[in-house]
Amino acid sequence: MSKSNLLLELYSNLSTTGALTFSSKALVNKMLTYTDIEHAKLIVELGGGDGSISQGIIERLSPEGELLIFEINQSFCHSMRKQFPQANIKIICDSAENIDKYLGGRKADYIVSSLPFIILPKLVTDKILIKSRDALAPKGKMVIMTYSYHLKKLFKKFFSHMEVKFTFRNLPPAFVMICH
Q1: Phi-psi bin for 125: left (phi > 0), alpha (psi -120 to 50), beta?
Q2: pLDDT at 96
Q3: R_g of the chain, CA atoms, integer Å
Q4: Given CA atoms 67, 154, 33, 1 in this order, what sign does their dihedral have?
Q5: CA end-to-end span of the chain, whole Å?
Q6: What is the mean pLDDT of residues 157-173?
């Protein structure tokens, strides 16, 4: 799928993508600065979209590492399956609410999210955050990209430690929230 078709898909589904454009390389690098992907065994991405963040993770992922990418948009899933055919990359076309069904009791070193929590129903958001928190390894982190600083209060309900960073180098500028 071409970038223009991906953008058309993005704008056609604003209620589920919650983004005006795809994540910039600068934002992806900022998010992944707070991880150690090279030494991670299991990484989960929530909201794969066009694969911008996925690509950054894969560039850092060791051959022994595994990446599970959750995405509900069928077109994005299809495109990412073509883009990332590696055996250690799994594209899961399902809601992040079901993360526990795909982990098989394993714990993630990192969960990286670009989900539009600001527009998701409260019950869905709470379920995703509870299941994400429970899916993390003891020293694991959830790194969340968001456009709203106000979501910090929400994330604090589920995570005991939080850091908030900001980057202008994205359209629109974005917050990176590191939760553990």
Answers
A1: alpha
A2: 97
A3: 15
A4: positive
A5: 36
A6: 94
Calpha distance 162→156 (Å, rounded):
7
Alpha-helical regions (H) of 111-160: 122-135, 151-156
What is the spatial distance between Cα 95 and Cα 105, in angstroms, rounded to a whole number? 18
How high is the pLDDT of residue 16? 47
Closest CA to 117 of 17, 20, 48: 17
Q: Does domain 3-179 have CATH number 3.90.1150.10?
A: no
Residue type, 11: Y
- Predicted confidence at residue 30, as pLDDT, reads 97
Domain ranges of the chain: 3-179
- CB count in 10 Å sphere of residue 4: 8
Asked if residue 14 has pLDDT above 80, the reply is no
CA atoms of 27 and 104, how far apart (whole Å): 31
Torsion angle of C-alpha atoms 19, 23, 24, 29, degrees rounded to 10? 140
What is the reported pTM? 0.89
Could you give the 3-state DSSP secondary structure of residue 69? strand
CB atoms within 10 A of CB 17: 23
* Beta strands at 66-70 and 89-92: parallel, antiparallel or unpaired: parallel
Q: Is 17 helix (H, G, I), strand (E, B) or coil?
A: helix
Do residues 63 and 38 touch, judged by C-beta distance below 8 A? no
Burial class of residue 82 (count of CB atoms within 10 Å of its CB; 0-12, 13-18, 19+): exposed
